[in-house]
Specification:
The protein is an alpha/beta fold. The protein has one domain (about 15-170): HUPs (Rossmann fold). The protein has six helices and five strands, in the order E-H-E-H-E-H-E-H-E-H-H. The protein has a five-stranded parallel beta sheet with strand order 3-2-1-4-5, sandwiched between helices. The protein is globular. The termini are far apart. Bound molecules: 4'-phosphopantetheine. 4'-phosphopantetheine binds next to strand 1 and helix 4.
Length: about 180
């Protein structure tokens, strides 16, 4: 029996949720959230922001590959990409829920602003939050990159294939 909470069930229309982010790169915190939420919705679209002005370490295609690698075995999870407004993409994908994770109170203020703005833009879409797993509450893509660049060990904070790509991209290993 699936003992996980399901937000969508029974005769209601299927619920698609969008989990948007930069994912530059994917961390185990993101992955934990994807695992936990995949059981709650009929479909989960993990949406990679395509924003070249942020000067990402990995291209959108690389970020999508890393997500797909890590998510094999989760049949109701898809990887997508978007530019422009998130709510436009959510509507295009038929999503009624935006999913975000909160690690600490410091995340809350920005998330609150985004939630209100997104609701103003598209009142039919609800933002749902999950608290990040405490084991990853200090993990961010930005810190992972910084620690790795400076020679620190990020094992256990990102999936192995992400660590491998960091080694190639930052230290030029295995090229
Ligand atoms: O992983 P991040 O960088 O915290 O994700 C931020 C993201 C992608 C959710 C946010 O920047 C976003 O939604 N960008 C798309 C542009 C948009 O819709 N802006 C208005 C949001 S209120």
């Amino acid at each position: 029996m699936n003992r996980r909470l399901r937000i969508s069930r029974g005769s209601h229309p299927p619920v698609t949720a969008i989990y948007p982010g930069s994912f530059d790169p994917l961390t185990n915190g993101h992955l934990d959230l994807i695992r936990r939420s995949s059981g709650m919705f009929d479909k989960l679209v993990v949406a990679v922001l395509n924003n070249e002005s942020k000067q990402p370490l990995f291209s959108v295609a690389e970020r999508q590959d890393m997500l797909r690698d890590a998510m094999s075995g989760m049949p109701n999870v898809e990887v997508g990409t978007f530019s422009g407004l998130l709510v436009h993409y959510a509507k295009e994908r038929g999503a009624r829920v935006i999913l975000r994770g909160i690690r600490a109170i410091s995340d809350y203020e920005f998330e609150l602003q985004m939630t209100h703005m997104n609701r103003r833009l598209e009142p039919g879409i609800e933002t749902v939050f999950l608290m990040a797993n405490e084991a990853y509450s200090f993990v961010s893509s930005r810190l992972v990159k910084e620690v790795f660049r400076l020679g620190g060990d990020v094992t256990g904070l990102v999936p192995p294939q992400v660590e491998q790509r960091l080694r190639q991209r930052i230290r030029g290993e295995g090229l």
